[in-house]
Design goal:
- It is built from 15 helices and eleven strands.
- The chain has 410 residues and is of the alpha+beta class.
- Helix 10 runs antiparallel to helix 11, helix 11 packs across helix 15 and helix 12 packs antiparallel against helix 14.
Length: 410
């Protein structure tokens, strides 16, 4: 069976589908290549607000009908906004696939943005912002983006700010879409035990009448990074710290080897170097991880942890020590082999999640115009040598190029 099937409708919207025969559930979604980085300064938070508003009414459904449509048959409806994507997606029993397809198409393209609902949702989002900043381990990640992408839209919080969120009105939402969306940048994606012939038939039924979107969205590239260190006093009991840098873009050939390095350093495994040092050896943190977010023109990497205020400096020293090791000591043959095996195992397990795979297919098509199979990815991992990893470590982990953000109790 083929890895996936592709079809392009006459209006330019693309369909990607993977048929699996061992599940009664179909996962499907519509992904737009629009995100918070596409907002103008006065529009901060618009993409996220728009994502919320599509659930509040369409030309043929009110908010109650939208919420109840799939829930009543045991399904789920959800959405998310990132700096470069907005997605609406659903999971249902395969005999309700048509219903799910109809619903996500309806909310994505036929929302009416009722004024009363805008006012209600404005309050909800402001409350979401208040709750978010009460969680310092989450807030520091966004504030760290602001530090390393200083002055650029990539550094702005996806939620926006209270001033911008309070300024949005009904006319602003369709205008934002019209100014940014192109039909070539819309993907319908699905995974389930449904034939591709049926998927295309339903796509023509639900998406075929959607008109073309023709905005030419040219994103402002991020160009100049300057390492910064910053300490902020907050009302909290535990200190929070972020250490990182800009990183490789999505299409960069160094992206996968860099991801492997971060997996060794602070991946989800308990055997990551940072976990073994700061938690297992010294007992200074409950958890510590290293993350990597690639974008179309750049990327970000960050190491995040919380600790007692008196231990912050020592923890930073230990992190820098592990980064120095990666810059100076080439991985041995056995270490490299284990690192590759661990990463391949993690990726293989992730691919078994059909919902995540459905979303990955759409994102991959939008970002790199292809969907690499798991064996192709394995081949790339196997081809990485320790010399190349050492070179990347020296490019990425030079201490003088790192930014550090610390939250300290006031």
């Amino acid at each position: 069976m083929r890895e996936y099937y592709l079809h392009t409708l006459e209006n330019g919207i693309r369909i990607v589908h993977k048929q699996v025969t061992n599940s009664k559930i179909v996962h499907c979604g519509i992904m737009f290549d629009i995100g918070s980085r596409d907002e103008r300064p006065h529009q901060q938070g618009m993409a996220h607000f728009w994502e919320h508003m599509v659930f509040k009414g369409t030309q043929k459904r009110n908010a109650y009908h939208i919420i109840n449509s799939l829930e009543s048959v045991g399904g789920e409806l959800n959405a998310y906004t990132t700096k470069e994507k907005i997605c609406f997606y659903a999971s249902v029993l395969d005999n309700h696939f048509d219903k799910a397809f109809d619903l996500i198409t309806d909310i994505a393209f036929r929302s009416t943005f009722p004024e009363k609902q805008i006012e209600k949702e404005r309050s909800v989002i402001l409350e979401e912002m208040a709750m978010y900043f009460d969680s310092p381990e989450d807030a520091i990640q966004d504030e760290f983006d602001e530090l390393i992408f200083e002055g650029h839209q990539l550094g702005k919080n996806i939620l926006g700010n209270s001033e911008s969120v309070n300024s949005f009105h009904k006319k602003d939402f369709p205008r934002f879409v019209k100014d940014n969306l192109n039909s070539d940048k819309i993907i319908f994606t699905s995974v389930g035990n449904v034939s591709f012939k049926k998927v295309v038939k339903l796509a023509q039924k639900h998406l075929g009448s959607i008109g073309r979107f023709e905005a030419i969205n040219k994103r402002e590239e991020f160009e100049v990074y300057k390492p910064l260190s910053k300490e902020i006093q907050r009302s909290l009991t535990q200190a929070q710290c972020a250490i990182g840098n800009t990183a490789y873009a999505i299409r960069d050939k160094r992206r996968l080897p860099f991801f492997m390095l971060l997996n060794i350093l602070g991946g989800p495994g308990m055997n990551s170097r940072l976990n073994l040092s700061l938690r297992e050896k010294f007992g200074m943190v409950y958890s510590i991880d290293a993350s990597y977010n690639p974008f179309v023109d750049t990327g970000s990497m960050g190491i995040f942890f919380g600790t007692e205020p008196r231990q912050v400096k020592r923890c930073i020293q230990l992190v820098l020590k592990e980064l120095q090791k990666l810059r100076e000591v080439k991985l041995g043959t056995l270490q490299l082999h284990k690192a590759k095996e661990q990463l391949m195992g993690q990726l293989a397990m992730a691919e078994e999640n059909n919902n995540s795979h459905m979303l990955m297919m759409a994102k991959s098509l939008l970002d790199i115009e292809s969907i690499p199979g798991i064996e192709e990815i394995f081949d790339r991992i196997k081809s990485v040598d320790s010399s190349f990893l050492l070179e990347i470590a020296n490019e990425s982990f030079e201490e003088k190029n790192l930014s550090i953000l610390t939250y300290l109790p006031n």
